[in-house]
Specification:
This protein is α/β, with parallel strands linked by helices. Helices cover 44% and strands 10% of the residues. This is Nucleolar GTP-binding protein.
């Protein structure tokens, strides 16, 4: 009977430990995830609170194992069945008390789990277009125009309260476009959770930044305020492609602004660093051109970064480009004589093929067209055989020769070597 009560204590401990381990393994470890996801989790759920909740579960798991080990030891030295039963009840009661104290952490982690399941899947390493700017400047409308994302578009500010992701293909490559919530121009410590999601995405994602502006001021913010916000968050754009996208050009274009405002807008642009693009999501004018220009620049920039790959400790060029250059050796003659490229005369005098020239060389395609075209005329594949007599070209190869199958003769298979005796 002592073994019966011992098994009950051990089974209860293993059940609690298994359930708590599943919960702990189901949540990401902050030190193992990408900095973007780490900061996003900190913004939405408070990373310290998240660590404390997981720590409480881990501590409870450890305490349950200690309780089980101690009471199993006591059961071995029990002097009666009644004492064994009391020890078993005490062990299960202490385990239940430990788990009952996990009510608040488990409730918090369940809310985090449900919210994490509703977040969009963002790959921080893929080709990304990041759309940012003031609220109600047309960010969600652009995302809905270039992707199949189901984004809520409304004529009032702060319609987008979280990150939205859409996907599209350009030149057979998959891109993701991220619509961030609107940002207001105030200090970082005064930003709310909605705005901090945008700051987190801009800071950590390797992407092309599309900063949207509304020169018509229908968004409720002046052009000066929009340019001031660009200057405020510009430090987050370091080492990224940046495009200032002028939206609603069907209402107001940059040329319609006064000269002072135009000069301030041009001051934001830098050749090779910040470019200006124009579109109208209402009339679809320039939408595809903006998407294609951003994707083209992003592809070229990612290829250049992969080729460079940084430098090693000695200062030499590293990465893939460095690996290739170290394998290439260009030998130059030591006598100093310049040797011109040799091109045979037959190649120089070769006449370029011209379909309209009656004296052009006859191609197999011309013969095919003269005899009815594809599907009617079949090209003679045996015509180019090199045999001692051209009359043999179309002879049928016999299957049987002298009463034997030719394929059985080793001499008819020159590619097979004879076995050495």
């Amino acid at each position: 009977m002592i073994d019966f009560y011992t098994r009950k204590v051990k089974f209860t401990q293993e059940t609690f430990t298994e359930k708590l381990s599943l919960i702990l393994d189901g949540f990401p470890r902050l030190q193992d995830i990408h900095p973007f996801h780490k900061d996003l989790l900190n913004t939405l759920y408070d990373a310290d609170h998240f660590r404390i909740a997981l720590g409480q579960l881990s501590t409870a798991k450890h305490l349950i194992e200690i309780v089980s080990r101690d009471y199993v030891r006591l059961l071995k030295y029990a002097q009666s069945l009644f004492q064994c039963k009391q020890l078993k009840r005490a062990a299960l009661g202490r385990m239940a008390t430990i788990c009952r104290r996990l009510k608040d952490p488990l409730l918090y982690l369940d809310q985090v789990r449900q919210h994490l399941g509703r977040l969009p899947s963002i790959d921080p390493n893929t080709r990304t277009l990041l759309i940012c700017g003031y609220p109600n400047v047309g960010k969600s409308s652009f995302l809905k125009s270039v992707t199949r994302a189901d984004v809520d578009v409304q004529p009032y500010a702060f319609t987008t309260k979280s990150l939205f992701v859409g996907h599209f293909d350009y030149k057979y490559l998959r891109f993701q476009a991220i619509d961030t919530p609107g940002i207001l121009d105030h200090p970082l410590e005064e930003m709310n959770t909605i705005e901090m999601q945008s700051i987190t995405a801009i800071a950590h994602l390797r992407s092309a930044i599309l900063y949207f502006m509304d020169l018509s001021e229908q968004c409720g913010y002046t052009v000066q305020a929009q340019m001031q916000l660009f200057q405020s968050i510009k430090p987050l754009f370091a080492n990224k492609l940046v495009f200032i996208v002028i939206n609603k050009i069907d209402v107001t274009r940059p040329e319609d602004l006064d000269e002072e405002t135009q000069a301030q807008l041009q001051a934001l642009l830098k050749p090779g660093d910040v470019e200006m693009l124009q579109l109208s999501c209402t009339t679809e004018e320039g939408v595809q051109e903006v998407k294609n220009a951003a994707c083209e620049r992003l592809i070229a920039d990612r290829v250049a970064q992969k080729l460079k790959g940084g430098t090693n400790a000695s200062g030499a060029v590293g990465g893939r480009l460095g690996d290739v250059l170290t394998r290439i050796h260009v030998a130059r003659p030591m006598d100093g004589v310049v040797r011109e490229t040799f091109i045979p005369e037959a190649v120089k005098n070769r006449q370029k093929y011209d379909k309209n020239d009656p004296m052009r060389p006859k191609l197999a395609r011309d013969t095919e067209e003269e005899n009815g075209g594809a599907g009617v005329f079949n090209v003679d594949l045996k015509d180019s055989y090199l045999l001692a007599d051209d009359a043999w070209k179309h002879d049928k190869i016999p299957e049987i020769l002298d009463g034997k199958n030719i394929s059985d003769f080793p001499s008819s298979r020159p590619w097979k070597r004879k076995k050495r005796s």
